[in-house]
Amino acid sequence: MISVIIPVYNTKQYLRSCLDSILAQTYSDLEILFIDDGSTDGSGALLDSFAETDSRIRVIHQKNSGVCTARNRGIEEARGQWLSFIDSDDTLEPDLYETLTDLLLAHDAEIAHCSYSRVTDGTASPIGNTGTVHIQDRAQALTCLLTGKLFVGSCWTKLYARRLFQDVRFPEGIRTSEDMLVNFQVFSRAQKSVFADVCRYNYLTSETSSCIHTPQRRRAEDLLAVNRRMLAENVCPELNGILENRVLGSLFSCYRASKYEQRPDRAFQRELTEQIGQMYRRGYRFSGRTALEYRLLRTLPGLYKFAYGIYDRIRVPNYDV
Fold first, then answer.
1. Is 167 part of a structural domain of the chain?
2. Which residue, 13, 146, 157, 219, has fewest beta-carbon neighbours within 10 Å?
3. Are 248 and 279 contacting, i.e. CB atoms less than 8 angstroms apart?
4. For residues 136 and 209, what is the distance between their CA atoms, to the nearest angstrom?
5. CA 67 from chain center: how many Å?
6. Nearest to 245 by CA among 228, 257, 233, 260
7. Both 23 and 55 in a single domain?
């Protein structure tokens, strides 16, 4: 059985389409867990009405505590051998779970995942969708996860063996990048995973996303905390260089975020500069670009801010692989 865990907070208008796409799955051995995270728009009552129509649906109500707490509640309540995490405003292609379970069985894997389509204003844009299948050991999967190659770090395209979460939970003090940390931890525990580059999940872009409205400095600090934890917990020494550069990149991001604030925190900036310098002196693996950034930050911080201000205005964010 697959336990499908769906945190819900004020997404009433999307719940019917999300549920219909789950009920339409060609793989039917499902447990559907809606975690109502203190919704105030009537989502809770609508979910209760859903539960009356299908015995596979369970609704759990809790006070508003955030998506991480809701997902953790779902893990605790789940009865299935496999776990899937879905966002309540997204939809699934009818054969998502059939595709993933077939991959798990065919390759004796502990994680199976796929690509997705980004849905904006009703238009779906496939990401990848080459049809290729990649069977990966622990180090290969972690490398792809950390570098953003092949697949993204989100949880919602993945089907996990429940045992991988025996001592893993979503970090409740972090608002962004929590998926990356959890995936790093569970992929570190999996001997084999399989990725199929086929789009079976529909991700709805939304201006109400909590990530969009999280202040830039908070996002940067969350990512720094996640990168530091991954470096500290890393079980593959060959990945240390990648992780060290991720920590460095996060320190630079925190510095820039502080520079852009209406009242820049100069003490915070000095602390970050010193931390970067300590890593430089300890022999951390600076790329050529990172070393240049560090020298510019130390000698001409005003120019550093100006140059990145121009870059941030002209660059096109790359959210996808």
1. yes
2. 13
3. yes
4. 32
5. 12
6. 228
7. yes
Domain closes at, from 207, 235, 259? 207
User: How many angstroms separate the first and last alpha carbons of the chain?
Assistant: 30
Q: Are residues 183 and 40 in the same domain?
A: yes
Q: Is residue 320 part of a domain?
A: no
225-232 long-range contacts (CB < 8 A, ≥24 apart) are: 225/174, 226/171, 226/174, 226/177, 226/178, 226/180, 226/181, 229/181, 230/146, 230/180, 230/181, 230/184
Provide the 3-class DSSP secondary structure of residue 193. strand
Residues 109 and 149 in one domain: yes
Q: Could you tell me which residues come within 8 angstroms of residue 268 by beta carbon, excluding any fewer than 6 positions away?
A: 254, 258
Strand partners, 115: 199
Question: How far is residue 154's CA from residue 109's CA, in Å, rounded to a whole number?
Answer: 19
pLDDT tens for the 321 residues of the chain, in order: 999 999 999 999 999 999 999 999 999 999 999 999 999 999 999 999 999 999 999 999 999 999 999 999 999 999 999 999 999 999 999 999 999 999 999 999 999 999 999 999 889 999 999 999 999 999 999 999 999 889 989 999 999 999 999 999 999 988 889 999 999 999 999 999 999 999 999 999 865 555 555 688 889 999 999 999 999 999 999 999 899 889 988 998 898 888 777 677 888 888 988 888 888 788 777 777 777 877 887 788 778 778 877 877 786 655 554
The pairing of strands 82-85 and 2-8 is parallel
Q: Is residue 319 part of a domain?
A: no
Phi-psi domain of 317 (left: phi exceeds 0; alpha: psi -120 through 50; beta: other): beta
Tell me which of 207, 233, 261 is where a domain ends: 207
CA-based torsion, 22, 28, 30, 32: positive or negative: positive
The pair of three-digit structure tokens given for residue 76, joined into one six-digit string: 């605790």
Are the CB atoms for 265 and 279 separated by under 8 Å? no
Structural domain that includes position 238:
215-314
Which H or E element spans position 112? Answer: strand 111-120
Find the length of the chain: 321
Distance CA 30, CA 79 (A): 10
